[in-house]
Amino acid sequence: MANLFSGVEPLSYSLDFHMERHNLLAANIANVDTPRYKPTDLARIGEAGFESAMQLAMARTNEAHLSTGADDPLVGRVFQDLSAGGGADGNFVSLDRESGKLATNRLRYDIVSVLVRSHLDGLMNAANDRKG
Amino acid sequence: MLGVFSAIEISASGLSAERTRMNTIASNLANAQTTRTSQGGAYKRVDPVFEAIALDKMRALTPSERSVSMVRVAQIAQDPRPGHMVFSPGHPDANADGYLEYPNVNIVEEMVNMITASRAYEAGVSSVEATQKMADSALELGRG
To answer: How far A32 CA lies from chain B's nearest CA (Å)?
Structure first.
């Protein structure tokens, strides 16, 4: 039997993950002029990524349905992202890449929080016997 | 735990560092023709040296907490390059041969640094804004 809040829990882990990643990306932007600084990023552990967490939140309407495997906490793995290439001072931060990542990450955070909101609204609707 | 406040703190360290860079650039530009300083001789241009510093040991427990770093200005370094010499024997700061040393400030170089610094500052501001918006959407969850 699923817990009343089992739909919200994976989403709250997702919010944590995106806030954590936001901190890493903000640190990269802060260090855009620091010599020899290597930017870090956060990757999801396991196959269940953002999309499958979304699917779980949106599609899993019945306990009998198969789980997408996104129930595990969304903890991340820290890695150095050196794909932008280094400058003469050994700094590997690309301002454009980091801003892009930051904006995408923020959008994901907002989407997940809207989903949490609608989940909670649904529960509230049920609790109030659909009267408001 | 990394959250809204740590993100703002990290971005703020970047903003403060870039502001220091702007101050050194302003100082270099203002003193582009200064031939007399308290240390003697012409003004030498200065550069801030940025350094990445990890969060305090007490707070850095998880791998991601250990990997985030703030930035601070480790020192203000003087540029050792020599300034250009101009023959002007009448000048009170000219040397015995009548040559006057002007500061090693290159206006174009300072302008380029200024643009870089202001872009980095803007990027820092937008990351603070993003943090605020994220906090707003988290707060929305508690409303209604």
So the answer is: 7
Q: Strand B46-54 vs strand B69-78: parallel, antiparallel, or unpaired?
A: antiparallel
What contacts B140, CB < 8 A, 6 or more positions away? A113, A117
* pLDDT band for position B3 (cuts 50, 70, 90): confident
How would residue A73 be classed by pLDDT, with cut points 50, 70 and 90? Answer: very low
Chain A nearest C-alpha distance from B80 (Å): 18
pTM of the model: 0.80
Q: Does A12 touch chain B (CB under 8 A)?
A: no
Tokens encoding B130: 């993003």
Q: Output b/e per residue, B36-53; b: 16+ Cβ within 10 A.
A: eeeeeebbbbbebebbbe
The interface predicted TM-score of the complex, written ipTM, equals 0.82
> Residue A59's pLDDT band (boundaries 50, 70, 90)?
low
* B48 φ, ψ (degrees, to nearest 5): -80, 145
Question: Taking CA atoms, what residue in A is nearest to B6?
Answer: A23
Helix (H, G, I), strand (E, B) or coil at B133: helix
